[in-house]
Design brief:
With about 450 residues, the chain is of the alpha/beta class. The protein folds into three domains: about 1-125, Response regulator (Rossmann fold); about 140-315, Rossmann fold; about 315-450, Helicase, Ruva Protein, domain 3. It is built from 19 helices and 16 strands. The protein has helices at about 10-20, 40-45, 60-70, 85-95, 105-125, 150-165, 180-190, 205-215, 230-235, 250-265, 290-295, 300-305, 325-335, 345-355, 360-375, 390-405, 410-425, 430-435, 440-450; strands at about 1-5, 25-30, 50-55, 75-80, 100, 170, 195-200, 215, 230, 240-245, 265, 275, 280-285, 310, 345, 380. The strands form five sheets. It has a five-stranded parallel beta sheet, sandwiched between helices. Strands 7-10-13-6-14 form a five-stranded parallel beta sheet. It has a two-stranded antiparallel ribbon with strand order 8-9. Helix 4 (about 85-95) links the parallel strand 4 (about 75-80) and strand 5 (about 100). Helix 17 (about 410-425) packs across helix 18 (about 430-435) and helix 18 (about 430-435) crosses helix 19.
């Protein structure tokens, strides 16, 4: 059974949670109402999931979260608090909190989160031999994702567990990490697999247009609305809607999306008639939603509603084991596409690829190999066939390494983006393609680094 430690200074809460969880027959329970003893109990490591109150005398919940993070103690933590404090919630989430609940606690929602936590515990406890593609129940669902990274395979196992539920899913990760591929895998494994899977990129619509496209509109609702039109959410009825770049949505549309998630109903633009749709919502973002919440650009209630099931996709630079594997995979694809017969990639090129930070992640690697295959005339991809911007970047990296002048990833990214923009005569569309990121993401980075 899954072992749960509950820390709360309110004994009545401890008694209630203990009884509630024991009745499920899935948990072994230990409780603690004196937070001063928390570190001592935690060090024993006799639990898998921690239910933690925030406001306690002497040692607060935040103190305990910092202790867990500083010592790299890997337990699933669910925060329970009686005070609505957005800054505290964000601080807790940044420290690795799995979920955040306000008291009084909704038993059904708590159990839903605990069920997901149980599966994460099971996956974490699997041996490396067991945690493999072969051990998946439905490996065919992940056929589009090429990997040998343990981090990604662990995500596959989690996806199999999440997919069979009907809850919304939030997928985090930088541009080019494969968020849409994970969303497709979730749909393929769900009970809705035979229904529609509709993809919407929130970043490509102006917010006024998005509202009409998403919810639909009635005839005469605005200039050009010559007839009633179903929105994407109605088109996806019975299936799933993948909403990419959700961080781009305006606050008014976030309110409407929250209503759909909570109530299942909505209004077309220009109509007072209520419509309903049975849709599973899967969303993705490359933004730091904690920062967006703090800056008032993203609703905290929508975030917590979406974050019931959360998947983080690590960037390519954090799973270097995949770089040469993917490079050779793309080589075969583009050999076939361009009727080329290149046998392999030189060791020098592979070495440069492995030492590159890949701000555009897998998509950028694919574009680099695509370009190299077109240019290369020999039987092996060599350095001179690589894109010019990439050669300039690795040349700069070599200079930096030789002079021991260390730079942050952000400084390197800024310089890299600036060089690509210059090479593309500041054409944002061409530069975003070269970088392997969306035009919206590029514009956001230009503003972030004050490049204009």
């Amino acid at each position: 059974m899954t072992r749960v430690l509950i820390i709360d200074d309110d004994q009545s809460i401890l008694n209630y949670l203990r009884l509630f969880l024991l009745q499920t027959g899935k948990f072994e329970i230990e409780t603690l109402n004196d937070s001063k003893k928390a570190f001592q109990v935690i060090e024993k490591g006799n639990f898998d999931i921690l239910l933690l109150d925030m406001y306690m005398p002497s040692v607060s919940g935040l103190d305990i979260l910092k202790y867990l993070k500083d010592r790299k103690i890997d337990h699933i933590t669910i925060v329970l608090t009686g005070v609505e404090d957005i800054d505290l919630a964000i601080a807790a989430m940044k420290l690795g909190t799995f979920e955040y609940f306000l008291k009084p606690i909704d038993d059904n929602k708590l159990m839903e989160v605990l069920e997901t936590a149980i599966e994460k515990v099971k996956i974490k406890n699997m041996s490396r031999e067991t945690l493999s593609i072969k051990a998946l129940n439905h490996p065919e669902a992940f056929r589009e994702i090429v990997t040998r990274s343990e981090k990604i395979i662990e995500i596959f196992h989690l996806v199999e567990k999440i997919a069979v539920t009907d809850s919304s899913v939030l997928i985090w990760g930088e541009s080019g990490t494969g968020k849409e591929l994970i969303a497709k895998a979730i749909h393929k494994l769900s009970g809705r697999k035979d229904k529609k899977f509709i993809t919407v990129n929130a970043g490509v619509f102006a917010n006024e247009i998005f509202s009409s496209e998403f919810f639909g509109h009635t005839k005469g609702a605005f200039t050009g609305a010559v007839s009633d039109k179903k929105g994407l959410i109605e088109e996806a009825d019975g299936g799933a809607l993948f909403l990419d770049e959700i961080g781009e949505l305006s606050l008014p549309i976030q309110v409407k999306l929250l209503r759909v998630l909570q109530e299942g109903d909505f209004y077309r633009v220009g109509s007072t008639k209520k419509f309903t749709a049975d849709v599973r919502i899967i969303v993705a973002t490359n933004k730091d939603l904690f920062e967006e919440i703090q800056n008032g650009r993203f609703r905290k209630d929508l975030f917590f509603r979406l974050n019931i099931n959360s998947i983080y996709l690590p960037p390519l630079r954090d799973r270097k084991v995949d770089i040469d594997f993917l490079a050779n995979h793309f080589l075969q694809i583009f050999n076939q596409k361009y009727d080329k017969h290149i046998d392999g990639i030189s060791d020098a090129v592979l070495n440069h690829l492995k030492n590159y930070s890949f701000p555009g992640n897998v998509r950028e690697l694919m574009n680099i190999i695509n370009s190299a295959v077109i240019i290369e005339s020999s039987k092996e991809i060599k350095k001179n066939s690589l894109p010019h911007y990439f050669l300039e970047t690795i040349k700069t990296t070599d200079i930096v390494n030789n002079s021991f002048a260390l730079k942050s990833i952000q400084e390197v990214e800024k310089e890299h983006i600036q060089k690509v923009l210059a090479l593309k005569d500041w054409n944002k569309t061409h530069a975003s393609k070269a970088l392997g990121i969306s035009r919206v993401s590029l514009i956001a980075k230009i503003k972030k680094y004050n490049l204009e």
